[in-house]
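Exercise (ungraded).
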Amino acid sequence: GQQLNQSPQSMFIQEGEDVSMNCTSSSIFNTWLWYKQDPGEGPVLLIALYKAGELTSNGRLTAQFGITRKDSFLNISASIPSDVGIYFCAGQLTSGGYQKVTFGTGTKLQVIP
Amino acid sequence: DAGVTQSPTHLIKTRGQQVTLRCSPKSGHDTVSWYQQALGQGPQFIFQYYEEEERQRGNFPDRFSGHQFPNYSSELNVNALLLGDSALYLCASSSIKGLIHFGPGTRLTVL
């Protein structure tokens, strides 16, 4: 099945450092979403982006909807140990009145205390 | 306000068997989608139910079928299980054009 290209695949960072990850697609989406998934849990929505060029923050998280509508990035500032997990981008397309969500391949984040 | 709930949490089956997974959507949501997440991968869309009908389907064989009940809860059925069906099965609910919220998943292991 289709998945979005997400990078990096994994990263190790020191506590307190900033993190950046991005996602690209060959298709246009109406909405970009960023989720975090902890082991054994379902993905939890972090940020939703609705307009090309939109920059949205949620605490230490900042995400942007690319101008071309085919990419997005997520930044995490001043990382803490509980930021550990897998981060997924997702593109949502509304077609025929229904939405379909396509996920990225994930970025596994490890924070070293 | 309960979120999306799924049962069972874990399940072990053998090849050729059939399995049924269950999902109750978040309060106020009427649309249920099912995703398969293999280890190390992102979730893959299986299908979506709205008004008790399958509205969209991903690239999954007919062995995967589902149902939505009048109370918006849903079941995912998989027949003739294969080893490759081992995965985390995620249910997600939403209003028809709203953001999706995921349940904790059912871990299916096929031996």
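Further reading is listed at the end of the chapter. For now, observe: Chain B is about 0% helix and 50% strand. The CA atoms of residues 1 and 97 of chain B lie 20 Å apart.
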